[in-house]
Design goal:
The protein is built from six helices and seven strands, in the order αβααββαβββαβα. It is of the alpha+beta class and 157 residues long. Strands 4-5-6-7 form a four-stranded antiparallel sheet. Strands 1-2-3 form a three-stranded antiparallel sheet. Strand 5 and strand 6 form a beta hairpin.
Length: 157
């Protein structure tokens, strides 16, 4: 957590646009009730501390403090509902990042792992399960990678 806060503070001093808005615990509880499970602890911290995160061109989905059902580009509920309609997403996953409707990052709240989902492979007839690949074993690893990449955009992350 300290590394994430440190990276965010460093980005604020650079010419990188960083936007977030923490949400209150009641909104997190409402979102968990909607999904029917408890968010993994790292994502819960993210929501309570940041709410959602826009850093450079990357948008990490969370909760908008105006409404858990806000239909904007950083709503984990909105993105997850859209994804479930298109790809029959299993209920333990939420969409964390939508990369132009071609590549998605999905957080499994049962094991805390972050999966990449290649929508193009799925559209080409591959099975849903083959399109999933573990990208990060912890949400914080993903978050650190996003922040480090924003700090050094020429690196591969």
């Amino acid at each position: 957590m300290k590394k994430i806060i440190s990276l965010l503070n460093a980005l604020k001093t650079e010419k990188v646009t960083v936007t977030f808005a923490p949400v209150n615990p009641m909104m997190i509880k409402q979102a968990q009730n909607f999904f029917g499970f408890t968010f993994c602890s790292e994502y819960h911290w993210f929501l309570q501390t940041l709410g959602y995160l826009k850093v450079g061109r990357t948008k990490i989905c969370g909760i908008d403090r105006t409404s858990i059902f806000a239909s904007n580009c950083h709503s984990c509920i909105w993105e997850t509902l859209k994804f479930r309609r298109c790809y029959s997403l299993s209920s333990q996953f939420t969409v964390i990042e939508n990369c132009n409707n071609q590549w998605y990052f999905l957080l499994n709240h049962h094991n805390g792992k972050l999966y990449g989902f290649d929508a193009l492979e799925t559209r080409q007839g591959y099975l849903y399960q083959t399109a999933l690949a573990v990208e990060h074993h912890h949400f914080f690893d993903y978050l650190v990678a996003v922040l480090e990449n924003a700090q050094n955009p020429s690196s591969t992350g």
